[in-house]
């Protein structure tokens, strides 16, 4: 889902590249324009890093890559290459620190390509930034079967001996995502995913109905996991079409993670706007075999993201979330009244 307080104002039709954007944004839109480099190094920690630790002697151009609903994004061209920079003038470094840790964790699996994070820091007088590798995108999202296989390889390689959770809490869109470690996946998903979103909806929209019915689902959903192997796998966490691309060689690239270690099937919770086809799933399950009851659990994982969209974007998503809850309650013969 992704604002540069530095240098340029984004085009209203541009989306964030490598940044949180609205679901209707066109992720691949690129609108480069020249911009003078006016701030001195001492005033600008981004320039300071690029000209010191980034080993550049000159920044030749700063180009806007648009703005989304949370962050701004710029491309910095220098004599040693290009850097991708996201900034936010309202939120401190914690959000970008979570993103950086997630990117590094995915990068270290040596599976699917992600931009390598370089630096997270604070902006004066307020705000934060992240500097990362600039990846030149190709003209498509690449081969679906390769994406499926590479994603499965990441899930297979990225394991945790601490259980389900992550080293830090992070944000999905602008919603906090709690990642406190738990040994039990069903308990983790119930408390930190569905339960958190349901309580947030109750507070934001005075919606006791969705909370009450959602809590009934939570109390009974263990039956949906019978026979499944539940082990902590490294997840991207927000894998929709805007966060999937390919590099100029056609290799799949995934961006803007909200990583945690969870049941691998939770990665498909955004499949309703990810465009995964049959070749994707066939290739994925060749590496990570399909678990018993997969089809029964698919909507459960989508529910988390529908609830998050309800909390982020309003009542237009309530009916989808409530419909999933009621369908599960009927299936499990639990009262919906």
From TrEMBL:
It holds the Pfam family Fructosamin_kin. It comes from the Eukaryota. GO terms for cellular component: chloroplast. Its EC number is 2.7.1.172. GO terms for molecular function: ATP binding; kinase activity; protein-ribulosamine 3-kinase activity. It is found in: Plastid, Chloroplast. Transmembrane segments: none annotated. Keywords: ATP-binding, Chloroplast, Kinase, Nucleotide-binding, Plastid, Transferase. It catalyses: N(6)-(D-erythrulosyl)-L-lysyl-[protein] + ATP = N(6)-(3-O-phospho-D-erythrulosyl)-L-lysyl-[protein] + ADP + H(+); N(6)-D-ribulosyl-L-lysyl-[protein] + ATP = N(6)-(3-O-phospho-D-ribulosyl)-L-lysyl-[protein] + ADP + H(+). Its main location: plastid. InterPro entries: Fructo-/Ketosamine-3-kinase, Kinase-like_dom_sf. Belongs to the fructosamine kinase family. Initiates a process leading to the deglycation of proteins. Phosphorylates low-molecular-mass and protein-bound erythrulosamines and ribulosamines, but not fructosamines or psicosamines, on the third carbon of the sugar moiety. Protein-bound erythrulosamine 3-phosphates and ribulosamine 3-phosphates are unstable and decompose under physiological conditions. This is Protein-ribulosamine 3-kinase, chloroplastic. It comes from Rhynchospora pubera.
């Amino acid at each position: 889902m992704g604002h540069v307080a530095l240098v340029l104002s984004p085009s209203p039709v541009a989306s964030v590249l490598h940044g949180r954007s609205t679901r209707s944004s066109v992720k691949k839109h690129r609108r480069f324009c020249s911009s003078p480099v006016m701030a001195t190094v001492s005033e600008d920690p981004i320039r300071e890093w690029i000209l010191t630790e980034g080993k550049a002697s000159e920044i030749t151009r700063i180009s806007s890559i648009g703005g989304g609903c949370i962050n701004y994004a710029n491309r910095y061209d220098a004599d040693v290459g290009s850097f991708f920079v996201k900034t936010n003038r309202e939120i401190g470094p914690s959000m970008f620190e979570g993103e950086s840790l997630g990117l590094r964790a995915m990068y270290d699996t040596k599976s699917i390509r992600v931009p390598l994070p370089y630096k997270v820091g604070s902006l004066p007088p307020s705000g934060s930034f992240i500097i990362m590798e600039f990846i030149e995108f190709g003209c498509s999202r690449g081969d679906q079967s390769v994406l499926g296989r590479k994603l499965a390889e990441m899930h297979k390689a990225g394991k945790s001996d601490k259980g389900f959770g992550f080293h830090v809490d992070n944000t999905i869109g602008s919603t906090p995502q709690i990642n406190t470690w738990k040994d039990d996946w069903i308990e983790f998903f119930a408390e930190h995913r569905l339960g958190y979103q349901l309580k947030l909806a109750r507070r934001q929209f005075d919606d006791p109905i969705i909370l009450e019915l959602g809590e009934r689902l939570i109390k009974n959903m263990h039956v949906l996991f019978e026979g499944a192997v539940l082990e902590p796998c490294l997840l991207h966490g927000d894998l929709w079409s805007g966060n999937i691309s390919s590099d100029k060689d056609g290799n799949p690239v995934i961006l803007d993670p909200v990583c945690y270690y969870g049941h691998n099937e939770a990665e498909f919770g955004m499949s309703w706007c990810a465009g995964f086809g049959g070749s994707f799933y066939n290739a994925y399950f060749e590496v990570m075999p399909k678990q018993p009851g997969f089809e029964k659990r698919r909507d459960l994982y989508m529910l988390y993201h529908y609830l998050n969209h309800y909390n982020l974007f309003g009542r237009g998503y309530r009916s989808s979330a409530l419909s999933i809850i009621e369908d599960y309650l009927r299936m499990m013969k639990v009262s919906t009244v």
